């Protein structure tokens, strides 16, 4: 390849990277300070947060709420290990974020949602936004309050206009995708009866089967998540009503 061709390729690469980098503006994080009073806090006790870019034009009454993923912590030990990271504390998160994909603001790249109200809820509880344990161990200082975080953030968004939504989507990826499944019915119930509501789970469908080693550990793993975070009472009643309380861990699995 001669120098001229190499230069053209480098210019093309720089151009593409520039487009990707500038697809959306840097969106500041909104800290929900009022959530602290209701105990809706991250693993370390810090307030929850989200990034919000307001809609415009025909999308002014349309809302896309995306929940961040990041795995789970199924035990006190594993939750302690993530407590002082961005996965367990809003204090450790980047304070601005560029939106892209379905959250992007460029019509050419995101024609369906570019002018909607677009939100990314940050993930800092380790339970797919389902935990709710009142007591806090003074030794570990861990707060298991994922369900309260979800409710506090949604309440904040409702107050900012989402209660008037015409179209709304609750989405998430991985642990956030599972959260989208678990909170879908509740999300719809908080919006106008006339609103068109959809839920999208991206990589949040976890099959109940054997793993690569031939074992079947996923059920016991999610069972520990439920136990550690006190998630049973936050899970969909449509699921928990069909199983005994001691088997509630299975409601965190999509059984096939």
TrEMBL record:
<comment type="similarity">
    <text>Belongs to the pectinacetylesterase family.</text>
</comment>
<keyword id="KW-0134">Cell wall</keyword>
<dbReference type="Pfam" id="PF03283">
    <property type="entry name" value="PAE"/>
</dbReference>
<keyword id="KW-0378">Hydrolase</keyword>
<keyword id="KW-0964">Secreted</keyword>
<dbReference type="GO" id="GO:0052793">
    <property type="term" value="F:pectin acetylesterase activity"/>
</dbReference>
<dbReference type="GO" id="GO:0009505">
    <property type="term" value="C:plant-type cell wall"/>
</dbReference>
<keyword id="KW-0961">Cell wall biogenesis/degradation</keyword>
<feature type="signal peptide">
    <location>
        <begin position="1"/>
        <end position="24"/>
    </location>
</feature>
<dbReference type="GO" id="GO:0071555">
    <property type="term" value="P:cell wall organization"/>
</dbReference>
<keyword id="KW-0732">Signal</keyword>
<comment type="function">
    <text>Hydrolyzes acetyl esters in homogalacturonan regions of pectin. In type I primary cell wall, galacturonic acid residues of pectin can be acetylated at the O-2 and O-3 positions. Decreasing the degree of acetylation of pectin gels in vitro alters their physical properties.</text>
</comment>
<protein>
    <recommendedName>
        <fullName>Pectin acetylesterase</fullName>
        <ecNumber>3.1.1.-</ecNumber>
    </recommendedName>
</protein>
<dbReference type="InterPro" id="IPR004963">
    <property type="entry name" value="PAE/NOTUM"/>
</dbReference>
């Amino acid at each position: 390849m001669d120098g001229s061709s190499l230069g053209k390729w480098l210019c093309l690469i720089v151009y593409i990277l520039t487009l990707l980098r500038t697809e959306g503006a840097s969106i500041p994080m909104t800290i929900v300070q009022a959530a602290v009073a209701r105990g809706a806090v991250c693993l370390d006790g810090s307030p929850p947060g989200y990034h919000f870019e307001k809609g415009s034009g025909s999308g002014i009454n349309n809302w896309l709420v995306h929940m961040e993923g990041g795995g789970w912590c199924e035990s006190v030990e594993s939750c302690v290990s993530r407590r002082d990271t961005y996965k367990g504390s809003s204090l450790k998160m980047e304070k601005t974020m560029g939106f892209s994909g379905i959250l992007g603001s460029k019509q050419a790249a995101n024609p369906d949602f570019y002018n909607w109200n677009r939100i990314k809820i940050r993930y800092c509880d380790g339970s797919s936004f389902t935990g709710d344990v009142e007591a806090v161990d003074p030794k570990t200082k861990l707060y298991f309050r994922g369900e309260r975080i979800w409710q506090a953030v949604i309440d904040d968004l409702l107050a900012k206009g989402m209660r008037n939504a015409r179209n709304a989507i609750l989405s998430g990826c991985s642990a956030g995708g599972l959260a989208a499944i678990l909170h879908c019915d509740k999300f719809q119930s908080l919006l106008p009866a006339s609103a068109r509501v959809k839920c999208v789970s991206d990589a949040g469908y976890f099959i109940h089967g054997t793993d690569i080693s031939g074992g079947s550990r996923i059920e016991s793993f999610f069972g520990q998540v439920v136990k550690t975070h006190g998630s049973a009472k936050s899970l969909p009643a449509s699921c928990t009503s069909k199983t005994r309380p001691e088997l509630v861990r299975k409601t965190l699995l999509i059984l096939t």
